Automatic annotation (TrEMBL):
Residues 503-567 form the External alternative NADH-ubiquinone oxidoreductase-like C-terminal domain. This is NADH:ubiquinone reductase (non-electrogenic). The keyword Oxidoreductase applies. It comes from Pleomassaria siparia CBS 279.74. It is an enzyme of class 1 (oxidoreductase).
């Protein structure tokens, strides 16, 4: 019998003993002593009211695990918020900077693009008197510029004021918002001018330099095709994105004007993108998203006439990607009703149509007219005038056509103490933001090592004099040991490896919340495309944004456009 059932069994036995048979119950009960009767009654009463004890199984401690996980999550959230908050406070409250040291060399950096800003980011400005010259006082995160053309992201979210950045360097950096008109290599001066709308008494001057880094980038190439610059829109600067945004809405509103002819409506709503690289593909995808998500909701009259066409002279789009991703992109564009015209070369551009030469099914070349409302030219780079002028000054650059030819240390051939980075330099690499950023970072490390070399050599000179004036052998030996140590440091510092580009992969957004990625993976490449790749594309670009401010603003813009839609008003 189970132990917890014993009280009930004892109670039953006592109850039977206490309950006499009907015939003799009265006699048996009254024959017992009174105290025995009372004790028996009390025992029966206690045992009959006793509750049996049931064994309770111990509960599993799952609640404790979830409770601690929740606490750690809250702690991590608070810590992350504190870290971001401190970063914002630090950004808003820069420390005082020491003034320039006249005894140090003057390093002039032209431009505020990927190469120049990557250089400034890692450069120890205490080693030089640094001067930055650029017509724009901000850094632009160009990979997200196509998103600005349709309002997915506001343009100021991908702009970082250059002065905010320079104020956080160890030593002060001079910045001049000006256009570099000419580099006089012989006199070692740069002629600059203030091209802003408001000019002071002095709006042209010269800036001398000891060391020069040219990072002015490139301008849009039209390949000598008539009408491109007059009628087409480019996609390289913030102003370009704003003009495209206004032109899209102009075409839509004009197409809905009263009594507009159907042929004219089709022309106005035909958006043509020339260039099948990442910029052209991303813009075409963003434009089709804009139409599918917003334009046809608010302007339903244009639903049947809106069309996007991508024109590319090569046999396929995204030539730097793998064949698998090229096919996936073309298939996705077909699903999105974006027309791809490969092997099509633009010959002339007028106000209302494009003359293009394409190869027909029979292999013959066909010249046709393509009407358009918006033309975006997203292909080719050309030299800026200041770079052309410098090339003409250097005999060693006589054969340079695409930019300043540089050696493996990014030194401009035929020049001394002049370097070039980014799209204005020819270093046997593709003119991409990734290449320019790595060139700038490498150049900063080299400049820091050069400054350290100069510092060590100065100390060696001082120790050499100290050894000559040492009073005894013990003092001379002590100085000699210091000289040997510094010589070891000098040998290490002088070992500067030439620049070598490391490809980190290629990304492109193709519309409909899909992206493609071609990423190096061990000895091969990892090619992927789809919605998951789209989230990777977003996270990669957010992490690559210049500052915490940019990252927060970009994420807020994405949420805002998803919840409220893109703005269809015209500014």
């Amino acid at each position: 019998m189970a132990p917890n059932m014993r009280p009930f069994a004892a109670a039953n036995i006592l109850a039977k003993l206490a309950r006499p048979s009907p015939a003799s119950s009265r006699a048996q009960w009254t024959s017992r002593p009174v105290f025995q009767q009372m004790a028996l009654r009390q025992s029966i009463r206690q045992q009959s009211t006793e509750v049996p004890k049931v064994a309770v199984k111990p509960k599993k401690k799952r609640a404790g695990f979830f409770r601690w996980t929740w606490r750690l999550s809250k702690l991590a959230a608070v810590g992350g918020a504190g870290y971001v908050g401190y970063g914002i406070w630090e950004m808003r409250n820069p420390d005082d900077q020491p003034p320039p040291d006249p005894s140090k060399k003057t390093l002039v950096i032209l431009g505020t693009g990927w190469g120049a800003v990557s250089l400034l980011k890692k450069l120890d400005t205490e080693n030089y008197n640094v001067i930055v010259i650029s017509p724009r006082n901000y850094f632009l995160f160009t990979p997200l510029l196509p998103s600005c053309t349709v309002g997915t992201i506001e343009h100021r979210s991908i702009m970082e004021p250059i002065r905010n950045f320079l104020r956080h360097k160890k030593a002060s950096v001079k910045f001049y918002e000006a256009e570099a008109n000419k580099i006089d290599y012989e006199k070692r001066v740069i002629h600059i001018s203030d091209d802003s709308d408001i000019k002071g008494d002095v709006h042209k001057t010269e800036v001398p330099f000891d060391m020069l880094v040219v990072g002015v980038g490139a301008e849009n190439a039209t390949f000598g095709i008539p009408g491109v610059r007059e009628h087409g829109l480019f996609l390289k600067e913030v102003g370009d994105a704003q003009r495209i945004r206004n032109r899209i809405m102009d075409c839509c509103e004009t197409a809905t004007f009263k009594d507009q002819h159907p042929d004219e409506i089709k022309r106005l709503l035909h958006m043509v993108v020339v260039g099948g690289g990442p910029t052209g593909v991303e813009f075409a995808g963003e434009l089709q998203d804009f139409f599918n998500s917003d334009l046809k909701k608010w302007i339903p009259d244009i639903t049947d006439s809106f069309k996007v066409t991508l024109v590319e002279a090569l046999p396929n789009v995204l030539p730097m990607f793998s064949k698998q991703l090229i096919d996936y992109t073309e298939k996705t564009f077909k699903e999105e009703t974006i027309t791809i015209r490969t092997k099509t070369m633009v010959k002339r551009v007028t106000e209302k149509f494009i003359e293009a030469e394409s190869v027909g099914p029979d292999g013959k070349k066909v010249l046709e007219k393509i009407p358009y409302g918006l033309l975006v030219w997203a292909t080719g780079n050309a030299l800026r005038p200041v770079v052309k002028d410098l090339i003409n000054q250097l005999p060693a650059q006589a054969d340079s056509r695409r930019g300043l030819a540089v050696n493996e240390y990014l030194v401009v051939k035929g020049a001394e103490n002049v370097w070039a980075v980014g799209d204005c330099a020819v270093a046997n690499y593709a003119p991409t933001a990734q290449v320019a950023a790595q060139e700038g970072a490498w150049l900063a490390r080299m400049f820091n090592q050069m400054a350290k070399t100069t510092e060590v050599q100065a100390k060696l000179g001082e120790l050499s004099l100290a050894q000559e004036k040492a009073p005894n052998k013990e003092a001379r030996d002590k100085v000699f040991d210091e000289i040997k140590d510094l010589q070891k440091v000098l040998r290490k510092v002088k070992q500067i490896n030439p620049f070598e580009y490391t490809h980190n992969g290629s990304l492109a957004y193709i519309g409909s919340d899909k992206a493609v990625a071609d990423i190096p993976w061990f000895v091969g490449n990892f090619a992927t495309g789809g919605t998951l790749t789209y989230f990777f594309w977003r996270s990669a670009y957010v992490s690559m944004c210049f500052s915490t401010r940019n990252r927060i603003l970009v994420c807020v813009d994405w949420v805002k456009s998803k919840v409220f839609g893109r703005d269809v008003s015209r500014v």
